[in-house]
Give the backbone structure.
Amino acid sequence: MNKISFCDENREKRNAATGSRNTKSPCGAIINQTGTHSYIYSAPKKCWKVFLYAMKKHCILLFFCCLNLLMNTAGAYNLKQVADKEYMSNSSITSLCQDDKGLMWIGTCDGLNIYDGQEIEEFKTRDKEDYLSGNQIDNIIYTGNDTYWFQTYYSLIRLDRKTNSITRFNEFQKLFLMNKDNHGTLFIIKDTNCIYYFHKKEGIFKKINVTGIPISDVITFFFDKNNRMWVMMKGYNRCYDLQQDPLTENITLVSQKSGLDHHTPLICSFYDDAAVYYVDKEYNLYAFHIESKKNEFIANLGANIQAHDKISSIVKYHDSFFVGLMMDGVLTLEKQKGSGEYQIQTLPINSGTFSLIKDRFQDVVWIGTDGQGVYLYSNPLYSIKSVVLNNYTEKIERPVRALLLVVVFLAHLF
């Protein structure tokens, strides 16, 4: 005969009076059920098992709810207008540039603005002699060491932020292309078979004579991760290794084979994430991966681009592509699971887009529009991440306002 304790006897009497019943859990706990309520009785040494047993079903339900929420968030995104004509000198954004401090320099059709993540201020020189030649800022390049370059129709301007002094190079006017190499040296292409670079030691621009670069065919130029210079033209391209004399610091170019061949003339080309993205005259978008020298077809954009529209910029955001259109907003190309094809959609921006850049410190994309200021795009699937504390290696340079710790114990329930 089983021995019944005083507590068990009292429990049996209460069950008879209330119409409740007892069940035994797999972990040995006594569960008393009365209507919609349940009460758990157990020895202290089994308390943690009892708690896990009682919470098991609730945690499983919560897990699947969170999983469902994550799946529904996969196609969602955040699009926030962070700067418009109310706060800036002009709402038509012609260029964007981010420096190593995270400041966003915003060039407009009427002046230059600086955004620090909270406030926007119009850039002003210290006196009347140091002024920007022309109100429209066509391009901004940051070459490090607090040095900024601004391209206007009337001049090329060098800003030394340390002294807040401005130097104008009037030999570069109207339309020209400029970019920087991996060491912060500014290069310019404005004439046929000529490439200019800024000699930091002498403080002047020097010219390098080359062949096979007609200025009318040049689309863009850039420097890859190996500091190799690429000059993209309508029908072909040129590639150069940079060699610098250690004494004079003069630079020479040595021609190399790029490995990129395209048979249809190009209308635009961009560099991002160790790949060249280009669109031919049939509006086929390709990605040429420099390291592997493989050409990848992405999608045909012809049906999504009006006959009179032009592409201003292309950036890759994880597995998606952003295509800025001069007159019709932004196209997004999202890769579909299974098929590998790209679905083309448009962002709800009812204006042209002049500039797209990825943030250097955050997982977001900056969008400069023609008349609606600056937008900030983010995707919760990528922008909100979890990390194990032991594996956290990021360097924190700014104050931390909040910290969320999530303790995962779901695995112990099984």
Remarks:
- The mean pLDDT is 82.
- The longest helix spans residues 47-73.
- The first strand starts at residue 21 and ends at 24.
